[in-house]
Design brief:
335 residues; alpha+beta; five-stranded mixed sheet; four-stranded antiparallel sheet; 7 helices; elongated; transmembrane helix; membrane; transmembrane
Length: 335
């Protein structure tokens, strides 16, 4: 019987569709800032009254921090609930259209602010940011961009094929025969392209922000390094129980001792069915999710469940069950 893996192509396509407009909008604003930097006043005019005159100002470094937090943060907030769907983006056309429209509106508004500040700084009659004005007709253009982007979002969401990939039923793993006193260890490395991409995608914008003097960049670099550290781990099963350690450093590490494990099973699981990538806490348990596919499931003595996605999970589960079975009688005799 051939075991079929979980097809992740629809999930990747869905992620790209949802996040792409926010990433592109952020890239356009940053590129505009870099191109106009020598012409920009500091602080920038960023808020305008009903008469179109500037009445609020933001430093250049803080401006980029706000742009990054608003655009990339909105992208992540839109991505998480959308990827939990199993019916595809077609069922969430309104949410996708709203995200596309928002990214278009904000991207245009931020880029126009930079052009308005740059032009005012270069004009002999308006050399200060306080003289920057926002013509009312620019709001109309921003709304038009939002409508066009929203329509594009509806089109892409409608074309997205439904993808249903849930966990299958897991049967109890067979025992791994071990002679009395025989010692065995099982270990495998597992990597996550998604976590690696998230780490790089977070650290690179952080580096850009640090280069232009924004303190937010350091936080993004730190988050990126943590994601990168978790992008490849080694899973080990031995007489002490289960251990999952990062390739990058001794910490972070997950260790579950043998006496805390009731039984082990294995089955195919989609990353989204476990809550997404990385360390996930969900109702009734937690999981370390690197990718979809083979996964080791532990039922703990507390009744909670822990899962880790790793190749050859059936062998790991069989060894754990053997070690548990061999360890428990000894514990009972001591009592």
């Amino acid at each position: 019987m051939v075991k079929r893996g979980v097809d992740m192509r629809p999930v990747r396509r869905r992620a790209v569709i949802v996040v792409l407009p926010f990433v592109l909008a952020w890239a356009v604003v940053v590129a505009t800032f870099v191109g106009l930097r020598d012409r920009l006043p500091d602080p920038l005019a960023t808020h305008f009254g009903a008469d179109g005159k500037a009445d609020g100002f933001t430093g250049t470094g803080a401006f980029l921090s706000v742009v990054t937090a608003v655009l990339l943060g909105s992208g992540l907030l839109t991505l998480v609930p959308t990827l939990r769907l199993t019916k595809g983006l077609g069922a969430q056309r309104f949410a996708v259209a709203l995200g596309y429209g928002m990214s278009g509106l904000l991207g245009y508004a931020f880029a126009f602010l930079l052009f308005a500040n740059a032009n005012a700084d270069a004009d002999v009659d308006a050399t200060r940011a306080s003289r920057v004005s926002l013509p009312l007709w620019q709001l109309g253009i921003a709304l038009a961009v939002a409508v066009v982007m929203g329509a594009l979002g509806v089109l892409l969401a409608s074309r997205d094929a439904a993808s249903a990939a849930g966990p299958g039923k897991g049967a109890a793993a067979p025992r791994l025969p071990l002679a009395e006193g025989e010692v065995a260890t099982w270990t495998r490395s597992v990597g996550s392209p998604v976590l690696l991409a998230v780490g790089a995608g977070t650290a690179l914008p952080g580096a850009v922000l640090v280069a232009v003097g924004s303190g937010t960049g350091a936080l993004l670099i730190f988050v990126g390094l943590v994601c990168t550290a978790l992008a490849r781990c080694r899973v080990t099963v031995d007489r002490r129980g289960l251990a999952v350690a990062s390739w990058f450093a001794p910490r972070p590490r997950v260790r579950i001792s043998l006496d805390r494990i009731e039984r082990a099973t294995s089955r195919e699981a989609a990353a989204l069915s476990l809550g997404g990538w990385g360390y996930r806490v969900r109702g009734g348990g937690s999981a370390l999710v690197f990718r979809s596919g083979d996964a080791l499931f532990l039922t703990l003595t507390t009744g909670r469940e822990f899962a880790v996605t790793v190749d050859d999970a059936a062998t790991a589960a069989a060894l754990l069950n053997t070690l548990i079975e061999r360890d428990r009688p000894a514990a009972g005799e001591c009592g």
